[in-house]
Amino acid sequence: MKKLGVALIGYGGIGRVHAIAYRNIPFHYGLPADSIRIVGVATSNPDSAQKAAAEIGCEIGTADYRELLAHPEVDFIDCCLPNNLHEAVVIAAAQAGKHIYCEKPLAMNVAEAQRMVEAVEQAGVKTQVTFNVRFYPAMQRAKQLIDDGFIGRVFSYRGRYYRSSYIDASKPLSWRLSRAVSGGGALFDLGSHILDLAYYLLGEFGSVQATLDTLIKERPVAAGSSEMQPVDVDDIALMHTRLKDGTLGLFEISRMGTGATNDCIIEVFGDKGALRFNAADMNWLEVYDARDPEKPLGGMRGFRKIETIGRYDGAKSPDWSHTPGFIRSHAECQYQFMKAISHDKPAAPNFTDGLHIQAVMEAAERSSEQGRWVKLSEVGG
Amino acid sequence: MKKLGVALIGYGGIGRVHAIAYRNIPFHYGLPADSIRIVGVATSNPDSAQKAAAEIGCEIGTADYRELLAHPEVDFIDCCLPNNLHEAVVIAAAQAGKHIYCEKPLAMNVAEAQRMVEAVEQAGVKTQVTFNVRFYPAMQRAKQLIDDGFIGRVFSYRGRYYRSSYIDASKPLSWRLSRAVSGGGALFDLGSHILDLAYYLLGEFGSVQATLDTLIKERPVAAGSSEMQPVDVDDIALMHTRLKDGTLGLFEISRMGTGATNDCIIEVFGDKGALRFNAADMNWLEVYDARDPEKPLGGMRGFRKIETIGRYDGAKSPDWSHTPGFIRSHAECQYQFMKAISHDKPAAPNFTDGLHIQAVMEAAERSSEQGRWVKLSEVGG
Amino acid sequence: MKKLGVALIGYGGIGRVHAIAYRNIPFHYGLPADSIRIVGVATSNPDSAQKAAAEIGCEIGTADYRELLAHPEVDFIDCCLPNNLHEAVVIAAAQAGKHIYCEKPLAMNVAEAQRMVEAVEQAGVKTQVTFNVRFYPAMQRAKQLIDDGFIGRVFSYRGRYYRSSYIDASKPLSWRLSRAVSGGGALFDLGSHILDLAYYLLGEFGSVQATLDTLIKERPVAAGSSEMQPVDVDDIALMHTRLKDGTLGLFEISRMGTGATNDCIIEVFGDKGALRFNAADMNWLEVYDARDPEKPLGGMRGFRKIETIGRYDGAKSPDWSHTPGFIRSHAECQYQFMKAISHDKPAAPNFTDGLHIQAVMEAAERSSEQGRWVKLSEVGG
Amino acid sequence: MKKLGVALIGYGGIGRVHAIAYRNIPFHYGLPADSIRIVGVATSNPDSAQKAAAEIGCEIGTADYRELLAHPEVDFIDCCLPNNLHEAVVIAAAQAGKHIYCEKPLAMNVAEAQRMVEAVEQAGVKTQVTFNVRFYPAMQRAKQLIDDGFIGRVFSYRGRYYRSSYIDASKPLSWRLSRAVSGGGALFDLGSHILDLAYYLLGEFGSVQATLDTLIKERPVAAGSSEMQPVDVDDIALMHTRLKDGTLGLFEISRMGTGATNDCIIEVFGDKGALRFNAADMNWLEVYDARDPEKPLGGMRGFRKIETIGRYDGAKSPDWSHTPGFIRSHAECQYQFMKAISHDKPAAPNFTDGLHIQAVMEAAERSSEQGRWVKLSEVGG
Q1: Closest partner residue to C327 among B33, B281, B325, by Cβ?
Q2: Residue A313 above 90 pLDDT?
């Protein structure tokens, strides 16, 4: 492995998660501590940048991310900015010849995502989108099983991503509730993850029939304020989808899934078997083998909770039989990108993958407006 | 309670379930054994009728159900025939002045259901549809809680009914796979139950957007046969629905839900709380109270598995702290109908309720054909 | 199958459960209704006996059980009396040449149980103890698997039977809390079941180390009374046991298992596999196959919930894919006894088996008093 | 917070876990990166020490831990050595005036633990034992609830720690299977954790009745070797315990818990409520409130899965609604020790606590040998 330098651009909650994960990589993969170095961090103002740099223990904390793009020891940037700021940073990083690791969703819309794909292809830099849920061991195992034919012909699939983060009507507006900054609501924030999981396991989408709704239509402009403004993004998105080969499935995405802490669920049903996973219960992949005998009493069919837990392929983690946690999935996601850079191999999921998910989401929005099935080709996907 | 006589019309699997349940009623409700008497049973031929009568221990086993309609000691009939035979029997029973207990779905289509409703209203007989899932204690408790405001404003809901009964492509055609006999596929057989649960808990539906699919398009005409014929009903039905008041929700119904034994699930999400139930895990109703404190560490929010188990209101069942089972839910459903007859009170769910569910299903079929939202009013609902 | 007549002796809660189960047998096994006839019921006084007979729909309701023992159409008696009344009835029934089906625990102590075994052996009548939990399909499947070598060498086992039926200190004294009537507390009432499960699956016990405790030491003599009397039976019993071959395991039995509705749990751990079951979740037997591959990522090991549900071997129940419930397990238990009588084959678990469990319980009591391991041979087991 | 330097002594699997956790602390608590500095690492030979130092990114990697004890920037040592090496290092560290963080179990036996306690008390240094399971948010919340009276009077408790790490008889001998190095088997390795959990929540133990067993009595001396040597430690330990106030409970500890990945379970039953937790399912604490109404149908009693997840009191972790993982619990455990040092406050669980657990384990061993209850006072506890 080459020693790599990364520049963190954006340091909110998810930026801090990324920083922890980089710190953990040497231990999980048996690498020297300097295999991955956070060269600097850029935030929106000098004070927060200094505070971020102190917490990280890196030299540079700057309000001008271009300073980091110009730094010779930065091999790749890690973009943790709000969605409306991705495009500019990504295009600048590509032009600076930096590889790019970018939080999901990739862009505000398909047009932006297409411009970003063009820019990185022209620059010849590697890209990866932080679809970290793919990188739970259970999902890695699911991919193996599906590729090995465990499921057989897919009958249908279901994805859910429910959180209850916005059930309180007095919770004020924020960037995630503003279309101008986020590009979309629950569909973008949560839906992008669960759509990617299905895409990862089952392949490309072909068409979408969706209904989006804003359940709390206006909120205070700030905590405790009596001034209300409309919410212009979706709180809930229900989707029926067909893969390119026509296979039917459904998705349900909500920020008002009362009681759901972090229910990120995927299920696949096939003629040979089935599988299901919930990121809230990450230690196990549940699989059902329809090849097992089924007799009135003597059968062996049933869902089996495979102990995937922290079992990464080839990893040297010292905690492989203990619950790995959310941050561990980010470390694996980052490490795969580092390997791609180091060995000059393709990274995945890359920006073209990110564009595909963007197209599914845009088709869903159009479908909801028009009350009909929309093909991905109609939105440039 | 009046002593009542019932005539069983149809004695396949579900007819036998009904018969057991009648036998159990005296014990569960502390009534004399002769509170409910199975006067006779009608099947399609004399031999099976005699065998049925012997198993039941009733005097009459006949291939002519009209014999039972004419019997003076028959207070109500219980129709367990295939769907295409409901209408004729029901109308004849109404004309004979018998009260009518009828398996779901009520009819082959909305037009039939409307005629049946007209006939029973004209005759002034009481009716009930066997939506037995309503009668699990957990669902009775859910109804109490919703009526008491536990959920608050409903954000959304979800229903699933998945079984894996048809995943084997060599399973031959049968009446459930034939539109001419069943009227519909998974949507009719399983969907009617789960739609009724949502209707029971949340109220009337207004419109539907659905996609139906037949996953195994042809099957052997008989077990082991190499002659194949097309399946002309749905194996899977996905639905987005809006209640009359606009509340959005979803349903997923499949006979190809690989691994599902009997996953009949309802979830309701609201601003004050949430609830969920799975008939495969019938002992508990899970509820979440959003009024509970939520603090970084000191909170009390979480899903609670209320021990509803066999706890029927007012019942004298000796097994109230043990798992009641499927048959017990039928006994409760029947007992409520017996009470309605005995005390001359309204029964529920009656044929008008059955018609509503029929309309939702017909709207779903039309929506799937036309790829758009369909209002219930468009199909006569 | 011969047509059989049964006399119910005792008609409290469990007597009513037995009555329902007899009524259901014809339907579950495809038999004529008169295969099993409840000839009469005996209770402690004429009024309750008449009421019981009316609920059951049988001719005889008597306060003198000897009337039933003398009845020529009674093939077997079903003893549902409090424990202190078992011996007299059983010995009288044996002398009358009736087969005997008896609720658990068999007796008040080992001496009584020995006398009962002698009496029935002398009389040559068949006996069965109502260890109905054995008769859940999941436990039948567990027995098959163990007999087939699925578990391999048994490392250890664990049984729990927890209910929370007595956590309320204001709950008054009753026969179950009186040693003179019940013979013992939680150990007798709940422990007998779970000990039998282990015995059924794994074989005979050899020795016991136990601690019994009475957690609420006195209770009101009647509901609402301020007069208190001591509780002279155990509320909780903890046991370490060794099978005859030395295999170590544990049992925990409590009526103060706050929150437990009916947690009757058995687990077996072996070098080839493991299994576990909870009667509160009766639809599934969970099994783990240690022969499955275990790899860092590519493994398949995990607990599998086999869908045993209502799947009885050879049964014709119409509800085999639905939750069977508590009463169904009694029907199977009774039916096996009826088959033993009808085909003149050995019944199981018989009174000798019941005596073995009695010896384990008596050894546990002695161990608790003396603070040491007690061999079953020390108590006549 | 003071800036602190730590010396890692021992760098096997658990040493690496500790190292990751130190790295994460600044991010989880919003501290500067240099709040905690790993000054150096000591292992058993220079090569492994250099490799460890490279992975950690610290300056000193040494085979002589005394070098670190002499280092002025080392505020505390973190002892991750095999159990037989704890005493010497701890006493030397105390004499060097360093605070001491030490892996569990504290010592080889009570005598050693007593000497260690004396040494640290004489030196006036702070100590903490790595009972990290206490530091899951669910256990922190459990402690709050118990202290607030949620459980009421404790009826009983149960602890289990089952892993299936040694079910394969061909797994060779190692230090954990050698009494001379480990001091004990499953009881020491796993039992110390679960005993500490009960001690943390419920208070001091008074007496013990235990049975220990070695299930696989000899193993290969090395992988693949045909030379066998006896295993001289326990594989399984079953315990009945009484707290100082007499409250009865049980523990089951096994390395042959086939199918258990990491089942570390605690349950507490009381007259007002109950709680349960499994570290394999760390996101939730399950609680039952017996104050909730219980009615035939209208009740609200049931186990509630409180979403404790990553919710540490006062923490600034960016992942509080995602599964925190095993390493996170170590970070919290370390952070509490750092706070105790920094603010000169008592640390917990300290060596006196570790000694208490040591005494319980020694009493268990003696009890198993003698087949009787053993008081902690008999073993110097």
Answers
A1: B325
A2: no
Contact D296 B302 (CB under 8 A): no
**Per-residue confidence band for C219, with pLDDT thresholds at 50, 70 and 90:** very high
User: How many angstroms separate the CA atoms of C299 and B268, rounded?
Assistant: 37
Q: Please tell me the class of the C4-131 domain.
A: alpha beta
Domain ranges for chain D = 4-130, 133-349+357-370
- According to CATH, the topology of domain D133-349+357-370 is Dihydrodipicolinate Reductase; domain 2 (3.30.360)
Query: Which one-letter amino acid corresponds to residue C166?
Result: Y
Question: Which chain B residues touch A296 with a CB distance below 8 Å?
Answer: none
| Contacting residues for B263 by C-beta, under 8 A, at least 6 apart | B160, B161, B162, B163, B257, B278, B279, B280
**Residue numbers in D near B312 (CB within 8 A):** 296-297
Optimal mutation site among D150, D156, D219, interface C, most CBs of chain C within 10 A: D156
Mention the CATH class of domain D4-130: alpha beta
C295 interfaces chain D, CB cutoff of 8 Å: no
Question: How many Cβ atoms are within 10 Å of D204's Cβ, its own excluded?
Answer: 14
pLDDT above 70: percentage of residues in chain C: 100
Q: pLDDT tens across A173-202, in order? A: 999 999 999 999 999 999 999 999 999 999
CATH topology of domain A4-132: Rossmann fold (3.40.50)
Find which of A155, A211, A234, A272 to mutate to test the B interface (most B CBs within 10 Å of its CB).
A155
| Alpha-carbon gap, residue B28 to B132, rounded angstroms | 16
Nearest to A323 among D16, D26, D326 (CB): D326
Residue B261 has phi, psi (to 5 degrees) of: -80, -50
Mean pLDDT by 10 residues, chain B (381 residues): 97 97 97 97 98 97 98 98 98 98 98 98 98 97 97 98 96 96 98 98 98 98 97 98 98 98 97 97 96 88 94 89 93 98 98 98 98 97 85
Q: Chain B residue closest to C264 (CA)?
A: B322
Beta bridge partners of C79: C9, C102
Quick one: which of C241, C254, C190, C217 has its CA closest to C364?
C241
CA nearest D324: which of B296, B227, A348, B289? B296
What average pLDDT score do residues A297-317 get? Answer: 91
Residues on chain B touching C322 (C-beta within 8 angstroms):
262, 325-326
Find the helix packing angle between D110-123 and D351-370, rounded to 10°.
170
Superfamily of domain B133-320+357-370: Dihydrodipicolinate Reductase; domain 2 (3.30.360.10)
Query: Is the complex ipTM more than 0.85?
Result: yes
Condensed to tens digits (0 to 9), the pLDDT of residues A275-294 reads: 999 999 999 999 999 999 98
Pairwise CA distance, residues D374 & D379, whole Å? 8
Q: Looking at domain C133-311+357-370, what is its CATH homologous superfamily?
A: Dihydrodipicolinate Reductase; domain 2 (3.30.360.10)
Cα–Cα distance measured from residue C274 to residue A307, given in angstroms and rounded to the nearest whole number: 15
Is the link from the previous residue into B82 a cis peptide, with omega within 30 of 0? no
Instruction: Average the pLDDT over C94-114 and give the result.
Output: 98
Identical fold, C4-131 and C133-311+357-370: no
* Contacts of residue A85, Cβ cutoff 8 Å, sequence gap at least 6: A10
Q: How confident is the model at residue D321 (pLDDT cuts 50, 70, 90)?
A: confident
- Rounded to whole angstroms, the Cα distance separating D221 from D93 reads 34
Q: How does pLDDT run across D271-314, given as a tens digit for each residue?
A: 999 999 999 999 999 999 999 998 888 899 999 999 998 999 88
Q: Which helix (H) or strand (E) holds D121?
A: helix D110-123
Give the 3-state secondary structure percentages of chain D, helix then strand then coil, rounded to 5: 40, 25, 35
Q: Residues A134-320+357-370: name the CATH superfamily.
A: Dihydrodipicolinate Reductase; domain 2 (3.30.360.10)
